[in-house]
Amino acid sequence: MKVGIIGCGFIGSELAYFMDKSKDFQLIGMNDIDKNKVYGLIKNLKGNNPKFMDIDELIKKSDLIVESATKNIVKDILSNKNLDKKNKRLLIMSTGGLIGSLKLLNNIKNCEILLPSGAIAGLDAIKSVSGKIKSLNLATTKPVKGLEGAPYILKNKIVLSDITGKRTVFKGNLSDAVGGFPQNINVAAALFLASKFDNIKVKIIADKNAKYNTHEIEAIGDFGVITIKTQNLPSKNPKTSYLALLSAVQMIKSLKNNVKIGS
Ligand SMILES: NC(=O)c1ccc[n+]([C@@H]2O[C@H](COP(=O)([O-])OP(=O)(O)OC[C@H]3O[C@@H](n4cnc5c(N)ncnc54)[C@H](O)[C@@H]3O)[C@@H](O)[C@H]2O)c1
Description:
With 263 residues, the protein is α/β, with parallel strands linked by helices. It is built from ten helices and eleven strands.
């Protein structure tokens, strides 16, 4: 399977190394707004010899396109004329970017869209109870460092260094959470896409002493109560949980597995 990666930061680089060691995947193209990242990465690869490609060429030539860049690019990728072809697959990490592009997503008929569980667990159960949910809450607690630079923090002049213990810095709905914390709250978008529940309540807590990125989800409905909690160690990128990378690797591996586990 020929693979192209858009966005060569933490997740993109690790996936490139994974592809490089795999016999099932051939990395042929990479793209990043910072070309030096691509060239630096190419130098370190041993099994594959990908080229820097612009996004058009990368989408045209790849069977599997991996988006691991930014939510701002998701719309352009979904509307690319070369994408919606049979035997193409698009894996999207910046799930938050889908919230403003739901129509485009629904119009895609041929290309298979892959959305890894990312930094959370339990999306299988949330999908199963879709349509039966009465309330759905997400509370995300992050070390202060993981929230630095978020548009909501900057706009509201929240001084993160003043936080001594735990402080709720945001309470609101999904679209405000996605807009205000684009690099932190892909999980809320994934929850929405799995549940189709349009009144998710999101809370974001900054914790000076937190070691983990913690996501606590509670869904209530006719089925009972589903409670899901993940306590993730941040990766090299403090905004990204290590589990998010592992979930992408697992989804890519499953493309070649004939035994599928979990719904
Ligand atoms: N689904 C989830 O649960 C989940 C979890 C963690 C991260 N993410 C998302 O995955 C994406 C990648 O995460 P990461 O930790 O690798 O981030 P990162 O910041 O380490 O890497 C992102 C890379 O994309 C590049 N980039 C930015 N804008 C670009 C553009 N317009 N075109 C091409 N390249 C561009 C950057 O230069 C950088 O190299 C982010 O959007 C992040 O929010 C999703």
